[in-house]
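Hey L., structure's done. Input below.
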Amino acid sequence: MKKIRNMDVEWGYKGDVGPEHWHTLCDWFSTGAKYPYQSPVDLSKNVTDGASASRAIDFCYKTEEFTEKEFKNTFHFVPPNTESYVIFEDEKYYLTDIHFHTPSEHTFDGEHAPLEFHLVHMNNSGDNLVVGCLFTITEDENRFSKKQTTLKWNSETHQQWFDPSIFLPEQKSHFHYLGSLTTPPTKGPVHWFVFDSIQKMDQDFFERIYEGMLPFNNRPVQALNGRKIYFSE
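Output:
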């Protein structure tokens, strides 16, 4: 097995570097794949384990600068100053990356949505928390439309200024479970919060960030392996 750094390893979504082969590509990927609670998973309100006040998440997002980057099979918004964060179990997890997968990685009762954004957070100990937001693409006017959006774009410098709350639904009901990263090295544990609503995203906005990307970049659904899934209204 190759002993090389993660950034040097070629991986993708089909063929010999596809998801079923990730664990064979290097020792780091192999170690990550051994974590028993992998992501994504199928989510259903019929198989949840209730809710708990201790599972609440508080969003402390603000308008800040993001830099556009294209790497590792998707498009990323990366905040250079990590000013936005969430609070979970009295600890701050800072927003470090926003990216998307098509179609969605998580499924609701076995059904994919066309698009899923991941808002990736990390605390000072290096632990991850990811917020998943599912979308459908539409030409109907919505908060991503040019007439409504508060996003400020600079196509020459690849810099944007926006409040990441634009990706969050008004109704904050969500699933919460313990899983992993969905891209190599697929390490865990990762606290996942996936909103149960499928929101609308403007076709023009999506095409702007989707241009040149893979036609699909979603990891298949993984087995629950007995883990608990919580749902909070």
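Residues 203-210 form the longest helix (8 residues). The mean pLDDT is 89.

-- N.
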